[in-house]
Amino acid sequence: MSTGPSDRPAVVLLSGGLDSATVLALARSDGFDCHALSFRYGQRHAVELDAAARVAASNGVSDHAVMDIDLRRFGGSALTADIDVPKHDRVEDLDDDLATGGVPITYVPARNTVFLSYALAWAEVLGADDIFIGVNALDYSGYPDCRPEYIAAFEHMADLATRAGAQDGRHLTVHTPLIDLTKAQIIRLGTRLGVDYGATISCYDPAVDGRACGHCDSCLLRARGFSDAAVADPTHYRPGAEPR
After folding, report:
1. Residues 134-163: what's their mean pLDDT?
2. β partners of residue 39
3. What is the DSSP letter of 63?
């Protein structure tokens, strides 16, 4: 493929959260022609899709596709079933839970595999050899599909499973530029790239108006990231719900 910016299509998985917004900004700064991909997968709230639309529009993507998949049929997660989202009063309480090494109930079974498979299909059609995803193996909630070995296995599978790989000998790269960064490092990076984090939402259990709960795993990790980065937290919280 040509290395000119207009000839470098890439699919960027865009949830509307802090990490995916940063990854999109990075992909654009590297000269990729970005095609954003979001999912309405039966998650307990739709405000993240509103955030994804804002982020996509402000970054001038070539296209923003929103795919419908109803993972509620399977359930198995606090994000897709009638299961309470775990809450903590302090981020230190979350650290204690993560230290046990268990996979939390907010893990959606095989979600990244499903999402990456859709991204792979679109990449083939676009003639793209590049997919970007905002997985992170440091400040994360213990999800197995955020680990480097998982990403490497998916790349290998993609080369075997696609015409681009099997017939044309091309290699798919799944870019994970945030995988070894702390939340604070991600926020500092995105701030340098001009990411508007006020347009994003990370909360697992937001109010209908999009205000964050302040106490789920994702809210606590996000808040600690802004604090550690010494960057003002632009998150809109429910009244009195600011993390401690």
Report:
1. 88
2. 67
3. E
111 φ, ψ to 5°?
-60, -50
pTM as predicted: 0.92
Q: Which amino acid is at 15?
A: S
Residue 99 has pLDDT above 70, yes or no: no
d(CA 130, CA 32): 9
Residue type, 109: P
Mean of the per-residue pLDDT values of the chain: 91
Domain ranges of the chain: 5-84+109-202
Which ranges constitute the DSSP H helices of 32-146? 47-58, 91-98, 111-126
Say if residues 12 and 128 touch (Cβ distance below 8 Å). no
Residue 93: exposure state from Cβ atoms within 10 A (0-12, 13-18, ≥19) = middle
Q: Which CATH entry fits the domain spanning 5-84+109-202: 3.40.50.720, 3.40.50.10680, 3.30.1390.20, 3.40.50.620?
A: 3.40.50.620
